[in-house]
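S1.2 Input.
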Amino acid sequence: MSTLIHRDLGPDKEAAEMSDSDEAGHANAADLPTVEAAGSPAPAEPEHFADRRRQHAWVPGIAALLTMLVGLSDIIAIFKPGWPHRLHKLSHYVPGTLTNVTRSADVIIGLMLLLLAHALHRRKRRAWQAVVALLAFDIGIHFYHNQHVPTAVVAIVLLIALLYFRDEFYAEGDQRNRWRALWVIVALVIADVVIGLTYILLARGLETDYSFSQRVWEVITGLVGVSGPVQWSPEARGDLFGILTGALGLFTLVVAAYLFFRPAEPRARLAKADAARVRELLAKHGDRDSLGYFALRNDKSVIWSPTGKAAICYRVVSGVMLASGDPIGDPEAWPGAISPFMDEAARHAWAPAVMGCSELGAEVWCREGQLTALELGDEAIVNVADFSLSGRSMRNVRQMVNRVAKHGYVAEVRRIGDIPRQELDKIVEAADSWRGSHTERGFSMALGRIGDDECVLVTATEGGVVRAVLQLVPWGADGLSLDLMRRDKSAQPGLNDFLIVETIKAAPGLGIKRISLNFAVFRAALERGERIGAGPVLRAWRSVLIFMSKWFQIESLYKFNAKFCPVWQPRFFVFPSTKDAPRIALAALQAEAFLVLPKLELRRIARRTARKLGLGRLRRRLRALSHGQDPGRGQDPGQGGTGGRAAPP
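S1.3 Output.
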C-alpha cells in the first residue's frame, strides 16, 4: 500500500491554523505532489478534491437514477408483446442473425447500465466513460429500428447531461481491478466453452458431424445470444443449448463488470519505515489517546501531514475510508493530515469516516473535513490511585477475585520484553487454541498480534498451566490500554475480573497510573434508559440495544466495565452525512469483523489440500536442500493471530 506524503509546505501551524477559516486550513494542503512508499513520484493534482467534492452533489445521484431507469427499460422491452415481430423486416437481409444480435445487444446494454449505475453514483470516471459509450450505442439501436422512442429521448437527455457535467465524475479506480476482471473473463470464457462443448457431446442432437472449430464457434456465439453454424435435431435441444449458453454469457458479463467497477480497496499494509515514524510520534504524543498504539496494526495504511508531525492510519472497507481514534501526533498538526486524507477519499470516491475519536478529535475532524459527529459510546478508564476493592459497590468483583484465588490461580504481570521467547511462544500457542474461530476481530481497539516488547502480558496459571491471558498496549509513558482478553473455556469463571484487578495492583510497580478497559457502545442510553423518569423514546432505544446485545454484546460489555467503577470518556463516530451513516456503519462492522461476508477462501483450501497430500512437507524439504540446510531441522512456531478486546465470560 502506498503512503501519501505531502512535502514543502512549511510548518504545520501555517498549514492549518485551528482558529482560521476552512479555506485557510485547506489551502496549504492543496495541489501537492504525492510520493509513493517506494519513492516514485505521482502526478500532481490539478484541482483540490475537497473543493470538487462540495460541488453539485445532486448530479451523480440523478445520473445514476436515470441510468438505472434506461437500463430497466431496455431489459423490460424484450418482454413486451409483439416487439420481436417488428424486427422481422430485417430477416430479408440477414435471416435470423441480426434479429438475435439486436435483442441480445439490448439486453446486454440494459444489464451493463444497471451495473454501472452504482459506480456512476460514486463518481467513478471509468463508469462515466462506459455509460456514455453504452448510451450512444443504445440510442442508435432505438432510432434505427424506430422502437421504444421515449427511452431513447431519456437516454439522449442523460447523455447530454453526462457530457456537460463530465468534471463531476473524477473518481479513480483501482488498477488491480482491471487485471483481475480480465483474468476472470478469460477463465470464465474458457469454462463456458468447456461446458458448452460438453453439452454438445452429451446431447447427441446434431444433424451432421461438425468439426471441433465449428462447435467452439457455436458455443462462443451462443454466449452473446447468436446462433452459430450447428443445427440441432430436434430443435428443442438447440433451444435448451441457447438458454444454457446465454445464461453463461450473462453470468460472465455480470461477474466481470462487478470486478471491473467495484469500489477500489487497496491492500492495507503498514510499512516498517512508516511504523517506525508512527512509534516516534507515539513516544512524543502517545499519552493523548488510549487508542493511539492500535494505529500500528499491520493491516492499516497511513497518510502523513506535510511536515510529518501528524499521521492518520486507515483502511478501506467496502468503499469507506475508515480511520480509528484520533490522528497521531501534535494536535496543531492534525489538520495538515486531515486535508490529504479527505483529498484521497474524494479522489477515489470513498466515504471518509472515523471510529472512536475523542471529543477534541471529533471537533477537529468536523471543522476541517466538514463532517458530522455522533457520540458512539464511552471508554472505561480506571485511575490506579483511586481504585479499591473495598466498599459495597465492589462487592461482586471482590467476591469473584477471592473465589478465583482460592482455586489456586496465580497471576503474573510482565512486560513482553521481559518474557523468555520460548515461554512467550507457548503462551501464544495456548491463547490461539482458545479462539472460537479463525475470524480476526478488532480494528479500532485491537492490535491483532501478541509479541510487541512494549506491551504488558498478564497470565493466569493453575498448577503451572496457563489458563487465561490479557494483553495491554502502551498508552503514553504512564498508561495501558486493554487489547485482548482470552481464557480457557474450562477454567474457573471470573478469570478476566481476576486478571484486571491483579493488573491494577501491579500497575504502580510498572509506572502505570491509568488503564483503559473495554469500550461500551451507547453506554449513556443504556444507563439513562433504565432510570426512573426516562422518556418513551429513550426506553425504546434501550430496548433496541438490549435486543442487539444478543449478537454484539452491547449490554454485557457495559456491565462488565461498570463493575470496576471507571471514569467514562466519550468516543465519537464521525461521518459525512446522515444518508451515508448506514453504509459506513456496515463497513465499520466489517472492519471489526462483527459482520463477516461469506467468501471462498481459495488459499486456505489450497493449503489444506496440499497438507493432506504432503506437498507442503515436500516443498519445505526441497527448499531446505536448495539452501544447503538440514531438512529435518524444525522451525520455531509462529505466533498466530489474536482477537480484539474480548467480551466478558
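S1.4 Remarks. The two ends are 38 Å apart (CA to CA).
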